[in-house]
Amino acid sequence: xxxxxxxxxxxxxxxxxxxxxxxxxxxxxxxxxxxxxxxxxxxxxxxxxxxxxxxxxxxxxxxxxxxxxxxxxxxxxxxxxxxxxxxxxxxxxxxxxxxxxxxxxxxxxxxxxxxxxxxxxxxxxxxxxxxxxxxxxxxxxxxxxxxxxxxxxxxxxxxxxxxxxxxxxxxxxxxxxxxxxxxxxxxxxxxxxxxxxxxxxxxxxxxxxxxxxxxxxxxxxxxxxxxxxxxxxxxxxxxxxxxxxxxxxxxxxxxxxxxxxxxxxxxxxxxxxxxxxxxxxxxxxxxxxxxxxxxxxxxxxxxxxxxxxxxxxxxxxxxxxxxxxxxxxxxxxxxxxxxxxxxxxxxxxxxxxxxxxxxxxxxxxxxxxxxxxxxxxxxxxxxxxxxxxxxxxxxxxxxxxxxxxxxxxxxxxxxxxxxxxxxxxxxxxxxxxxxxxxxxxxxxxxxxxxxxxxxxxxxxxxxxxxxxxxxxxxxxxxxxxxxxxxxxxxxxxxxxxxxxxxxxxxxxxxxxxxxxxxxxxxxxxxxxxxxxxxxxxxxxxxxxxxxxxxxxxxxxxxxxxxxxxxxxxxxxxxxxxxxxxxxxxxxxxxxxxxxxxxxxxxxxxxxxxxxxxxxxxxxxxxxxxxxxxxxxxxxxxxxxxxxxxxxxxxxxxxxxxxxxxxxxxxxxxxxxxxxxxxxxxxxxxxxxxxxxxxxxxxxxxxxxxxxxxxxxxxxxxxxxxxxxxxxxxxxxxxxxxxxxxxxxxxxxxxxxxxxxxxxxxxxxxxxxxxxxxxxxxxxxxxxxxxxxxxxxxxxxxxxxxxxxxxxxxxxxxxxxxxxxxxxxxxxxxxxxxxxxxxxxxxxxxxxxxxxxxxxxxxxxxxxxxxxxxxxxxxxxxxxxxxxxxxxxxxxxxxxxxxxxxxxxx
Length: 905
What we know:
There is one protein chain. This protein is mostly beta strands. It has six domains: 96-139 and 320-431, no CATH class; 184-301, Jelly Rolls, CATH 2.60.120; 439-519, Immunoglobulin-like (Sandwich); 522-608, Immunoglobulin-like; 612-773, Jelly Rolls (Sandwich); 785-904, Copper amine oxidase-like, N-terminal domain (Copper Amine Oxidase, Chain A, domain 1). The chain contains five helices and 75 strands. An eight-stranded antiparallel beta sheet has the order 3-4-5-23-22-26-20-21, covered by helices on one side.
């Protein structure tokens, strides 16, 4: 007779004649679409394995590595390949964990507080559990309660069992530190006091459509166990079944609710049997309050049929298809059609000798193009993975790690959504139990780039022989700077002039150095103010955050200390990033706030007609229609009464239902039929209030300009908020030729990663405003015609001839004119910087910076290049006529026979 054993698994005591087997299976066919961040959505059961496609030549190079903790290092790689005949490249980050190191371990992090049916970002789970590095984990149903699709073991306890799906692999590490990747199944049995038994279909599972069974509903005629880690009141919701539920405490039935869920979360230490149909009738016939009930179960390998006891496991997490086997790209064990494309991806694998675990995340952001699954296979085999599987990816792909000397983790790279981390159900964490060691080294933490005049504080971080962070500030470190571009005192660095400085800190016998670059104007490609236009009214206060882009592509915030502000047409001040207008000069309708940094400038144009309300939907006299590009998409676009803070107001509501559609889908709110509504003059910015629906869809506006060209303006790349929010859009670089028409506002559900986003929702818009400097800043500017002849010191303006003190010339095929007289004729002003030989021209909404003998110029803060440069002749500055005139909105004509230049406005 076989000896029985019993174990406790998070509140449920399961007696078993079989050894425990922990399962982790991921990705699933659900009653409702079941999706992970890679957009996995399976519509057929028992999908046949698909062979991995051949990939183009794939090159991998390591860019560097850094220790995270004793036994774990972070490695960054660059990969290059060819796609459709074109070269493509990207970045991948790999945490290599040495299982031979006794101080490092792996475990699954779960939601909030270690509970299912809660969600948290990867970084949040790492912070809560003390992980020194982490990555996102299993697939999950984004519309469900919050439970993994695969099985899960955390801390040696079984948290969730695998779903009944084919080709879904799991990763595990045994307590004797051996890695495993395999496919598992689950078997279980409930036994009543009278000996009657009923099969258990799983533990802590959400609803899905199992494969290979007779039902398309996982919970129909089935019994499931829910332990106290399932914190949701529903077990589960959206299961298309009405359950009978049994509360079991200390192995005894204490409550039975027939054909209704128990109105409670699972009590601590207890569990609930959720039964439906045949299982419910079993409960009615065989279980009674006050009687004991026992459960047995087993999990086993589908490939070897061998049992695996989770008590022998350090951890286990579910995944999707196998990617690598025996060091080679494996045939996909499950259809990957719905998780295709070039995405951010997450994977796990281990080395041939079982010593190293590879935690892999590939980037898709402004620095990296993402990977296909077949490219991911190539990457994994290149870095030494012997066996590996795919985890959830796309928008969920997130990696965090603790930089050397730091006490908390930071985002390793930007996700597909920038610095936003998606809330997920679980992740894999890296942990250390290393003791305190001796000081091994120190490092300086702080910005690698400063601007002239900027002050920044640098800190000294230390780490011990086990790479644990240690406090070295108590040692009163000394700081020294060299190079002359910056000074340092007690870790506070002041940037003095452009150049490079070496910053060195010493604490006891340890020292560290870092290079800081002080950026000058020549290092920048553009500088802009977050508020491009503002009202020219005394008392106006607006935020004026200034950002700069370097020639290397880095974007930096420019601190107030690095800027000098100049005001034209008004008196004001900038303090703590806010511009305040104290008084407006008499007769001025356009003012300029000019932020200057080392020869670079950015401008805020202030107008008496700034931010004019264009449409508030209170009295709409034109039709608004719902249209779409896919006939199966349904929806409405209509004017409705506002809610919440919009009570008493009218808003444009756009509701959509894309569930029956496919491909790239649009839901349009069409304004005024096909005509649109006119935006009558030059608009430099647009403001709109938007009620978001947290759909992660894309919100856009479509314009048709006066040349007939269509222009698309992004209002929000991701609708990642609920409720009302004001959005400001800079239109100055849109290329729209005004007057134009706003044709429609619309929601986009793009095809790539489509299932990450909701296919149903409602957004609303209100208070559309345009800042139209042409209605104010260009108002009053002279109109007419002026002509000048080469070599003649005369200029005719609207038929009146006047003398000028320097004649236009032609040099190397380009015509040069004295800028002063052009501005006298057509309005605007110019200031001359004698020291730096620079001219700043202000006219309307344009700010133009020119430098004598230099072809580069700045237009509204953006560096551009001309074919010719300004020159000085007879003490006067002459500028290339066509460059200046066209950039200032003037029209230039050349008459070859008379050598006459005609300028019109």
